[in-house]
Amino acid sequence: MAIESNSHNRPTPEPLPEQEPDDFDSGSSEDHLSPEALTTQQALAAISSLQSSQNTAALQQARSSMQHRPADQLTVKPRALLLTIAAIALTFLGVILNNWIVGIVGTLLTLLLSLAMLFPWLQYVLKEWFTPEDRTLFVGLLGLIAAIVGLIKFSGIGDRLLILGRKINWDAFGTLAEWFGALGQILIAIIAVYVAWRQYVISKDLTIQQNLLTVQQNIITQQQTIDSYFQGISDLVLDEEGLLEDWPQERAIAEGRTAAIFSSVDGSGKAKILRFLSRSKLLTPLKRDRRLGRAILNGMGGYAEDRLEGVRVIDLGVMLAAADLSGTDLRWTDLSEANLVRANLSACDLVKANLSRTILYDANLSGADLNGARLFYGSLEKALPRSRTEPPNYETGERTGAVVENADFTDVQRMSEANRYYCCAWGGEKTRATIPGGCEGIANLLGR
Prior knowledge:
This protein is mainly alpha-helical.
């Protein structure tokens, strides 16, 4: 009677005839379990007999471990080992007896039995060590090599290459090899030069970085020196109440400190010191008590100025002669009567700076901002440069002007008409040639 496919009743399978066990049985077989698999099944049976919810997780984990065991595990029967040993002995017997028939039979049997034992392990190694992509790439490269060999063999290219090889003068290739050897030596020399150049570049970069660090350290050290100078000058000329108390020796020490620090700082540091001294009224001629020599208050919270007979706390004198102050900020500084001969004031910010009676002979003021800068006192018509023998007159402007002979005013910014007229009149021919706007119609009162 036929059984329908959708029936729930399954036919009872007939018992299979007993078969003789094979020498090489797979570890995944249900009829022949390894001792390790048998132990695992016994453990599963013990766990399932507990029939408790606490052990359900352990049961599932054990079953999953059974399912994930490699299916290719090979169990070698003692009979197979004996056969392999016998085949090895047969091979050595053939070698000893020098009988090729016995030797070849033993060799083939040994090879087949060894491959049969190692085949599952080789499969496992291929699966574990090589991905499917690696295997595909290997087979593809092998096929490409075989295709190239077949193409050369069966297309006639190989024969043509052999004919061409017979025609080549291989003695000439010996000379060519020498040329290639020389070329290799040249390439090695080029590589050595490149390595040396790279070492030089790296050393140069390290040197530049070290120099930058040194410059930064110098800037920090210079700022600390300037701060110490500010504190020292303040302690020297001020009393406990903060009032100015500068005796002749204190003024001399203050000038000595200033001259010393000017020689040890750069242009930016000099500009900071000048701004500090100027805004502190230490460069301004102050009106003094005729008997005590102390500065007199002006009644409006400051000290009274006396341009004609006043005494400065610090007299710059020739401290800034030939100094490099280019590109610095000198706004609102009092540089009156300072000796700035051959000084570099290019691109300086001299807004509202007082340059009356300042010696700017052969000074460079190119690109400086002279907006509101004072070059003289009094009226433009009577203003004259300073004189070595006659005192200045600050009411009329006579001998209160700066010495601008041979000065360079190229591209100065925001120069007033009064200052332009004064420089054209008292600067000489060299100065007149550099003043923006020219000096047409202005007489050369200097005469040279």
